[in-house]
Amino acid sequence: MFAAEIYMHRFLLSSLVRTLNPNEADWFYTPVYTTCDLMPTGLPLPFKSPRIMRSAIQLISSIWPYWNRTEGADHFFIVPHDFGACFHYQEETAIERGILPMLQRATLVQTFGQRNHVCLKDGSIIIPPYAPPQKMQTHLIPEKTPRSIFVYFRGLFYDVGNDPEGGYYARGARAAVWENFKNNPLFDISTEHPTTYYEDMQRAVFCLCPLGWAPWSPRLVEAVIFGCIPVIIADDIVLPFADAIPWEEIGVFVDEKDVPNLDTILTSMPPEVILRKQRLLANPSMKQAMLFPQPAQARDAFHQVLNGLARKLPHDKSVYLKPGEKILNWTAGPVGDLKPW
Length: 341
Description:
Helix content is 29%, strand content 11%. By secondary structure, it is of the alpha/beta class. Strands 6-5-7-8-9 form a 5-stranded parallel beta sheet. The protein has a 4-stranded parallel beta sheet with strand order 1-2-3-4. The chain is globular.
């Protein structure tokens, strides 16, 4: 789900918007691959990401003049970790760390989006997490298959390993789903992840998309692709590509405090409203904007990112620094982040 930084790099290598002449460039992109630092189990290890990013910026600023002209104001970086450039999967620690100081002037392209949060700075571009287009394509079932499941969810309700006391993970929202609806026949919810997961989503009317450690998850992409109305449970979430996807019209937003009332909220929705949302979700352009296909296609997530970058042009003259002028504090942040990679 963090692979957007790899696929965005591959896309740009062959894109018509790429130039090999830096004097023609509106933007500079530095592929850093911070999410490819993995634990032996294969899970992302964000703790060294600041050192990796810092070393990359030191490299490009010492070899070429372009970073130093603006201290990154005309550069963009893909940071698809749970809390973006705060580089931690637990919110409390992410907030304490804040965005890496060296990225304060750069444009960040990230999956994390939450209003009034220290890990989302003005001007960031919110993207969907990566979900494998080819894999999902192979699991499509006939469009007219009846949607016999009312509410569907597969995933953790508690993260015992990282949150043994409960209540911190997902701010308690997932636990509330389980405690209130585990015996409700309208709710097909479980921690088990069946081989028919994708097919089941296509048989469901509503798919729960609650926050986990972060507000976003691949379920949002999967719900849109499979025409299942996303029930978004993540207060103040900022969703990707709001200019291309009418989230309020295709989804259902439920406040975290209202999770105990989920059954009432969903069963009281008029059939005509449900049908309208399903018709909108059936629009191919809606699905296309959520995917990073190989090769790229018109109006896909790659092009939505390009649209977001284009809207930020032209750069204001104020972003260009005077010779020798410095704004960023290169020694700010935790001492551990200052170690070379």
